[in-house]
Each structure stands twice: as structure tokens, then as C-alpha cells.
User: Fold DNA-binding MarR family transcriptional regulator from Rhodoferax saidenbachensis.
Amino acid sequence: MKTLVKPIAVADVLKPQGCTNLKLRQLMRRVAQYYDAELAKTGLKTTQYSLLSHVVKLGPIRAVDLAGAMRMSTSTLSRNLQPLIAAGWIEVNAGDDARSRLITATDAGQTKRTEAQRKWRIAQEGINATLGIARVSALHALIDESLELLSPLESGDDDV
Assistant:
């Protein structure tokens, strides 16, 4: 008499355990700690560094265009600009017409970005050393592929 063996599906063996959202948030918090610790030495938060970097690269730029480039709402952008303006790193000047405004990094802002860029590299090197170059490269590839697969789900405005 033959014994029937039920084949084990690969999906059953490799089925993820736990919540993907939770695991990604846990990883993001840990990675962010590396960057936050280094950038704090410059007086910037990671979100402020990102915003300042975008303005340095893209400016002078209209708020609506900057918000689009950073994939955030204009109200979130406006809120996030305030500390950088108060610190004198970014300024908002008149644009081509009376209604438009252009966001620009000041000389002090460009200097601050260069200082923060050095700290950002230190954080990245710390991640590379801790996880290993191969793992970081594989993680980047997996993230890029996942973003591509999930891109049809995009709604437009991400608050960063």
C-alpha cells in the first residue's frame, strides 16, 4: 500500500511571520537612530537635513515644486520650513510675479548642509560597517524592487 505524502508548498515554508508594517517601522527607527545621532551634532534633524539638501540642489524653487519633489503636502512643507528660516539657513524671496515666492538656501544654509553632509556620511558608513556592504546593497535592491511593485498604490501626497 502506498503512503500519500502531501507536498509542502514553498509558500507554506516561507510564509512571513508577523506584521510587515511593524517590522519595517522597527528597522526604520533603528536606522534613523544612526543618522539622528550624527546629524544632531550639527543642530539639524534628519527631516531638516533632507529639506535643506533639496533646497540647495533645486533652489531657487517654488514651494509647490519643492513639495512635489519631496512628495509631501505644501502644508507640511510650510511647517517644516519654519525652523530653517528662523535659523537663517533658508529664505523665501519674491518670485517672478507678485504672487509667487522662491525658496533659496542662504550662504549659512549651504555651509550647514555641507557640515551635515559629512555627518550623514559617517552615519551611512556606520550602517555599512554594522550590517555589512553586501547586506546593505541587498537591502537597497529589495527596497527599490518593492517600491516599484507598490508604486501603483501611491496616492500622491506623502507627509514626510
Summary: The domain at 47-149 is CATH 1.10.10.10 (Arc Repressor Mutant, subunit A). The first strand starts at residue 90 and ends at 94. The two ends are 64 Å apart (CA to CA).
